[in-house]
Amino acid sequence: MRIGVPKEIKNNENRVAITPAGVATLSGAGHEVYIQSGAGTGSGFTDSVYEQAGAQMLDEASQVWATADMVLKVKEPLPSEYGYFREGLILFTYLHLAAEPKLAAALIEHKVIGIAYETVEVNRTLPLLTPMSEVAGRMASQIGAQFLESPHGGKGILLSGVPGVKKGKVTIIGGGVVGTNAAKMAIGLGADVTIMDLNPDRLRQLEDIFGSSIQTLISNPYNIAEAVAASDLVIGAVLIPGAKAPKLVTEAMVQSMSPSSVIVDVAIDQGGIVETIDRITTHNEPTYMKHGVVHYAVANMPGAVPRTSTMALTNATLPYVVQIANQGLRVALESNPALKLGVNTAAGRMTYAAVARDLGYTHVDVNEALVETFAALS
Ligand SMILES: NC(=O)C1=CN([C@@H]2O[C@H](COP(=O)(O)OP(=O)(O)OC[C@H]3O[C@@H](n4cnc5c(N)ncnc54)[C@H](O)[C@@H]3O)[C@@H](O)[C@H]2O)C=CC1
Ligand SMILES: CC(=O)C(=O)O
Predict the structure, then answer these.
(1) Which of 55, 81, 307, 325 is most exposed, with minimal Cβ within 10 Å?
(2) pLDDT greater than 90 at residue 331
(3) Cα angle at 202 between 265 and 142, to 5 degrees?
(4) Could you name the active-site residues (predicted)?
(5) Residue 313 assigned ligand-binding role
């Protein structure tokens, strides 16, 4: 198979979808790997290291997309990349389609086989989302602590407090991978930490993990309103796989926060859980003020720590890439139900139910769409 890896073009996105070790594995198995020149620089991988591992470097993104049977990326394609789509192209990357209706329409129009990292699912876990959620969760508390400092627009609170002075209050809404990792760091920073989740069993597990260093609280509008009003830092960490995030923190709740408090909405890649977050921000301009509260809504947080993130992401993605390349897509999907759950678009159809519901498409069973796809390609 010909595998292409273009350079990421999102603001400050320095991750890359393959490492030299991945190239060596694929080229050792007889595949051709085409990488855009400079794609690995931000993650510390030079063109020559990729070449030594067996890749062929191409100058232009257009060459990579046109040559490849399967394109590997990190972030969802941006509008300037939609022109590269073509029928039967396999695109393996984060897609977050519930929050990206134009991208969904372009994938459907061009009959791209869009496999989303974030919906590949094994035993109710999301193995290709988990490593980046670990990174973003840990970053969320660090970033929140930074933006609570006065020079960054915050209220001038040190989360740990000091002897004789209260700790800062952190509320984490969503106790999954992001929430757990945000809690680890917030506890480490010495904050007063509350974690909320809908699932009482998850709250039991969190209490087993963290003991008395956290307060757990069931997630409902009443409890969220009380916790948000009392918080210095609120972290959004909710996910309903594939679906648009529910707006759990209302405008009135944001207005109830004390001036220069901070919200870090990690769930922004699925649309965000905060009503007053109406835009995605970038690493260049990560925050804006609304109702006197600092809002942070960067959708590619791990892009800021690319050396850690690229390794963590590709450790998880490479086995799936190798399976698709070695077996071909049809056999790989037949033999790996986890991977099949990643297929969001095929044959011009929307094959992931939660995305279809949120964007108003008819949901077509993935098996049916794949029969059409493979018939069209044969
Ligand atoms: N902004 C960024 O750069 C990044 C964003 N993310 C995003 O962070 C979000 C969270 O991801 P994970 O922690 O991996 O998901 P997860 O599936 O591990 O955890 C989500 C948690 O939300 C809980 N939940 C669902 N509905 C809820 C509600 N109404 N109230 C409270 N809790 C509720 C679930 O029970 C679950 O425990 C996702 O949208 C993910 O894509 C992940 C990595 C990077
Ligand atoms: C999960 C995701 O969207 C990211 O790592 O950027």
Answers:
(1) 307
(2) yes
(3) 35
(4) 96, 269
(5) no
CA–CA separation, 345 vs 362, rounded Å? 12
Q: What is the pLDDT of residues 151-205, one digit of tens each?
A: 999 999 999 999 999 999 999 999 999 999 999 999 999 999 999 999 999 999 9
pLDDT band with cut points at 50, 70 and 90 for residue 307: very high
- The 10 Å Cβ neighbour count of residue 336 is 18
**Contact present, 340 and 45 (Cβ < 8 Å):** no
Q: How far apart are CA 33 and CA 128, in angstroms?
A: 21
SS3 of residue 136 by DSSP: helix
For residue 86, give both structure tokens: 């073509």
Residue 299 assigned ligand-binding role: yes
173 pairs with which residues across the strands?
Answer: 196, 236
Hey, what amino acid is at 301? M
Domains assigned to the chain: 2-111+305-377 (3.40.50.720), 130-304 (3.40.50.720)
Give me 231's structure tokens.
């918080």
Catalytic residue among 31, 96, 110, 295: 96
Angle at 373 between CA 367 and CA 377, to 5 degrees: 145
pTM of the entire predicted model: 0.97
Query: CA angle at residue 361 from 357 to 364, to 5 degrees?
Result: 95
Ligand 2 cavity residues, CB under 6 Å: 75, 94, 129, 132, 269, 300, 302
In 3D space, the residue among 101, 68, 99, 61 whose CA is nearest the CA of residue 83 turns out to be 61
Those residues whose C-beta lies under 8 Å from the C-beta of residue 164, and which sit 6 or more positions away, are none
**Is the pLDDT confidence value at 375 over 90?**
no
